[in-house]
Amino acid sequence: MKQEAVNETQPKRVSMFYTTMKRLAKNKVAMAGLIILIILVLLSVFAPLIAPYEPGAMDYSAMYATPSLKHLFGCDGLGRDIFSRLLYGGRYSLALGFIAALVGMVFGVFFGILIGYAGGKVDMICMRIVDVIEAIPGQLLAILISTALGPGLVNTIIALSVGAIPGVTRNNRAMCLKEREMEYLESAKSINCSPMKIMFKHMMPNIISPTIVGTTMGIGMTIMSAAGLSYIGLGIQPPTPEWGAMLAAGREYILLYPHMLIFPGLFIAITVLSINMFGDGLRDAMDPKLKD
Description:
Blueprint: H1 2-9, H2 16-26, H3 28-45, H4 47-50, H5 82-118, H6 120-134, H7 138-149, H8 153-179, H9 183-190, H10 195-231, H11 243-250, H12 259-285
Helix pairs in contact: 2-12, 3-5, 3-12, 5-8, 5-10, 6-8, 7-8, 8-10, 9-10, 10-11, 10-12, 11-12
């Protein structure tokens, strides 16, 4: 009976995930962004069931057709339905943004923790390399890599990921230097924990939250960078229905047929806006200074 009474008086431990989700659910702007993003993802995933036409189906009688009941967003110069191509194109644009940001986060966290924990000459040499890479603007670096590797989905992901790694590495290295002096690491060392266990089991959970927030916020910029590469002919190439490539295809007709640019640009803008709305809310929800 005494043991039960003691257990009842002890506060229940609440996981960080539960706390974050609870705070996030109270943020209407963040939830609106998340709902919009989920809708866009579902539209892309289920494009074969939703799209009224095949993305490559050409109807020469509907060339440059303006929006109508038959073609909601009109048609392009080859008579292809823009609405259908946007639904299919979301698969490529969203995949580029999410995968490139995730790859950049994984490698950035890995290198940042290793460099920060090692310290000394390893830290100095590696950070000078990071400085050199960061001295090149991210979009220019992506253009250089895409030019060297060539266009395509995989090469575009590599080009975008490489530009994201240095920034994530620097941030995680800085947080690792701070965590390295904490008492719980001294305790882990005293019981002969291996360096890999100390870094990735004890340190990483304490520094990963800001990285997750930063990566979420960076997905929108990555999608815009991917669209920019496709726009200048270095990303996804026609006839693949990627949003940036669709913008590039319609730029010559901006005055005569503006719908060819308006709708792909609108999809990009809505996607980036929804990600930023969700990212802002996630940042506030994961802030340890906030209290319920």
